[in-house]
Amino acid sequence: MLHFEIDKLTNSIEHAATGEIFETLVLPLEALKLKSLGVRKWVFNWKKEIQPRRPA
Known about the structure:
This protein has 56 residues and is largely without helices or strands. The chain has helices at 34-37, 46-49, and strands spanning 13-14, 21-22.
């Protein structure tokens, strides 16, 4: 299991100790790809997150 702390929100992944920024691409998760993620190993409700969001 990975253990990490989110210390600030950025548009990319940033190494806190060095300030190094890593190119990051965030895409919507498609239901068909859930199986390939091995979701049973995650402590995260992927099925809830792929639900279409309702307009505010």
